[in-house]
Design goal:
Blueprint (H helix, E strand, L loop, with lengths): L1 H23 L14 H4 L14 H4 L10 H15 L18 H11 L9 H12 L17 H5 L12 H6 L8 E6 L2 E9 L7 E3 L6 H12 L8 H11 L4 E5 L9 E7 L8 E3 L2 E6 L4 E10 L5 E3 L2 E6 L4 E8 L6 E10 L4 E8 L4 E10 L5 E10 L4 E10 L5 E10 L4 E10 L7 E10 L5 E3 L3 E6 L5 E2 L5 E3 L10 E3 L2 E4 L3 E2 L6
Parallel strand pairs: 1-5, 4-7, 5-8, 6-9, 7-10, 8-11, 9-12, 10-12, 11-13, 12-14, 13-15, 14-16, 15-17, 16-18, 17-19, 18-20, 18-21, 21-25, 22-26
Antiparallel strand pairs: 1-2, 3-4, 23-24
């Protein structure tokens, strides 16, 4: 007990000694322990002075725990703090130092632009500049935005890219080329037209298929005009389309003049090569299809790449169907199972025109298609049929938006999703009937087949919206969606949500 009292007495004496010394020292040269200063002030670096480096625990015993800090230096610390953060009274919320670290999405975007290469195709540089300028004003996709709530952005943004090798697996390419298109097979490698791998036979007069470089001047101007247009920001289309506009190197062109029918099918294959190492590559195919008045043609589109490799493909397709014209597109996306695929398809159908799209999605670790269709003329028709086969952990996503501008226009869409183990399928559909569009018939359906308990199917939103400026009667509006998912069964349809905007009377009908 005596020893304890002795230590207590010694500690009290030392405390009194150092306290008296501190109080009697000159004001400008007082000894202040650094731990008594505010943490946010103590950690700031004073301009012109170097902070003492952080030491390992084994080295700390050789250093003193007390810094010699004068009141003048403390004032400089506080002044520096105020300079950096400004007046705290004017700040909303707690003050924070600026965070200069880039997000994963920003690093991904920088990696995409780091592998951009020059092109000699006329007119492409001007389009790239417009796209780059617009892209700087857009926000990167994130989970807080509704269109990307069900999309695995982390899978996309965690990739980094290198220059592509340009090599093509000829055997694989031949395997997916159809016999019906032997005389009309066009190949684009990493977004650029490959004349060596393409075969183009004789075509009807005025018809052009191929790359932009060999395109006749009068057709090239029309293609440039279409390529500069970015689809409306429906379901996140604007960012992907603008990125394609900033990075594209060539344009695949299909031009069918007035009154011409192309009997043979024309096949386009967009191939993405590997980098030869662990990093992925990028590809930005751009396609413009123009079908003039009373024309007819059928186009096959394949998106593929070297199997087992990582890459990112972001195609954009524009389809313009003229008066009383017919355009049919058969589509197959069978990318590598490690690839990422985000695509925007925009179709415009004029009076009495007919557009048909039949697609199948079987590849890509993350695959997303935004389908935008505008029926701008009377009696315009659109048929959109799709199927997503989600296997081996794939995530396939189909977003469709169909707008009816003209009277008596007809649209029909049906999408089927098959989901296997650890896979994810998404369908999101919307039909919008604009004002003064009478006698519209629209049918949008979704079927899903769940084959495993750990698979997932999501229909985040599904409705038909009607905007009418005057009282009228629509004979029937059908908006059909799948019931809650039932394993191993085909599903019955029912109206899930129907929105009417404006004075109108709508007959609802259950479809079974």
């Amino acid at each position: 007990m005596g020893s304890i009292k002795a230590w207590e007495t010694l500690a009290l004496a030392l405390a009194i000694f150092f306290g008296i010394r501190l109080l009697t020292a000159p004001t400008d040269n007082r000894m202040l322990p650094l731990r008594f200063l505010p943490t946010r002030v103590a950690r700031l670096q004073i301009p012109g002075q170097a902070m003492r480096p952080r030491l390992r625990p084994a080295q700390r015993k050789f250093q003193s725990n007390v810094y010699k800090v004068t009141s003048e230096s403390v004032d400089r610390m506080v002044s520096t703090y105020d300079t950096i953060l400004g007046n705290e009274k004017d700040l909303q919320g707690p003050p924070r130092l600026p965070n200069f670290r880039k997000t994963a999405a920003e690093n991904w975007r920088d990696s995409v632009f780091s592998v951009k290469t020059a092109t000699s195709v006329p007119g492409i540089d001007a389009i790239n500049e417009e796209g780059t300028a617009t892209l700087e004003t857009l926000t990167l996709p994130n989970k807080k935005q509704e269109p990307f709530r069900h999309l695995s952005l982390r899978r996309i943004f965690n990739n980094r890219f290198a220059y592509s090798s340009g090599s093509v697996d000829a055997k694989m390419l031949k395997r997916y080329q159809q016999r019906e298109t032997e005389g009309y097979q066009l190949v684009f490698v990493d977004g650029e037209y490959s004349e060596d791998l393409s075969v183009v036979g004789s075509l009807p007069q005025g018809v052009y298929v191929g790359g932009l470089a060999s395109c006749p001047p009068e057709i090239r101007e029309k293609v440039h005009e279409k390529a500069r247009v970015v689809p409306q920001d429906i379901y996140g289309s604007e960012y992907w389309a603008t990125l394609n506009k900033a990075m594209l190197k060539d344009i695949a062109v299909v031009y069918v003049p007035e009154g011409v029918t192309v009997e043979d099918h024309i096949q386009f294959t967009f191939y993405t090569s590997s980098s030869g190492n662990t990093k992925g590559t990028v590809s930005f195919p751009r396609m413009v299809i123009i079908s003039e008045k009373e024309s007819d043609a059928t186009v096959l589109v394949n998106h593929m790449g070297e199997m087992g490799t990582k890459y990112y493909s972001a195609p954009v397709t524009t389809v313009d169907v003229g008066f009383d014209a017919h355009m049919t597109v058969y589509y197959h996306q069978h990318q590598s199972l490690s690839a990422m695929h985000t695509e925007v398809i925009n179709a415009t159908v004029e009076e009495d025109g007919h557009f048909k799209w039949v697609g199948m999605l079987t590849g890509a670790s993350v695959g997303r298609i935004n389908m935008d269709v505008d029926l701008i003329g009377e009696d315009a028709e659109a048929e959109v049929y799709g199927a997503s086969i989600c296997s081996e952990g794939l995530e396939l996503d189909m977003h469709a938006f169909i707008r009816h501008h003209g009277n008596h226009s007809i649209s029909k869409q049906e999408h089927r999703t098959i989901v296997g183990p650890k896979s994810h399928g998404v369908f999101r559909g919307q039909i919008l009937v604009l004002k003064d569009a009478l006698g519209v018939d629209c049918d949008q359906q979704s079927r899903a087949l769940l084959l495993a308990n750990d698979g997932e199917v999501a229909n985040p939103r599904y409705f038909t919206g009607i905007h009418l400026s005057s009282p009228s009667h629509l004979q029937i509006i059908r908006a059909c969606s799948s019931n809650p998912i039932i394993p191993y069964q085909v599903f019955v349809y029912s109206v899930r949500e129907l929105r009417v905007c404006g004075p109108a009377r709508v007959d609802r009908q259950r479809v079974g």
